[in-house]
């Protein structure tokens, strides 16, 4: 997982990545579903994964 505070500070390796945005205060089932969806989309688009 990568935490970015501003779009100007995105490392080169993460550019074009699928992004999952939220207040992940714990990884419950809803958060797990969002992260899994992000991974599936990244794989589909050939983009860097959110995790």
Could you characterize what this model shows?
The protein has 51 residues and is mainly alpha-helical. The chain is built from 1 helix and no strands. The protein is flat, with a radius of gyration of 11 Å. 2% of the residues are buried. The model has no long low-confidence stretch (mean pLDDT 83).
Question: Which short descriptors sum up this protein?
Answer:
single chain, 51 residues, mainly alpha, 1 helix, 0% strand, flat
Oligomer: single chain
Radius of gyration: 11 Å
Q: How many β-strand runs?
A: 0
Whole-number mean pLDDT: 83
**Counting H and I runs of at least 4 residues, what is the number of helices?**
1
- How do the helices and strands follow one another from N- to C-terminus? H
Assign an overall shape: flat
Strand content: under 5%
Compute the separation of the termini in Å. 5 Å
Main sheet: strands, sense, barrel: none
Can you tell me the residue ranges where pLDDT is under 50 for at least 5 consecutive residues? none
- Helix/sheet category: mainly alpha
What percent of the residues sit in helical stretches (DSSP H or I)?
25-40%
């Amino acid at each position: 997982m990568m935490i970015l505070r501003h779009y100007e500070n995105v490392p080169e390796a993460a550019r074009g990545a699928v992004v999952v945005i939220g207040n992940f205060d714990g990884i419950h089932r809803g958060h797990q579903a969002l992260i899994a969806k992000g991974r599936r989309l990244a794989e589909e688009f050939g983009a860097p994964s959110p995790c």
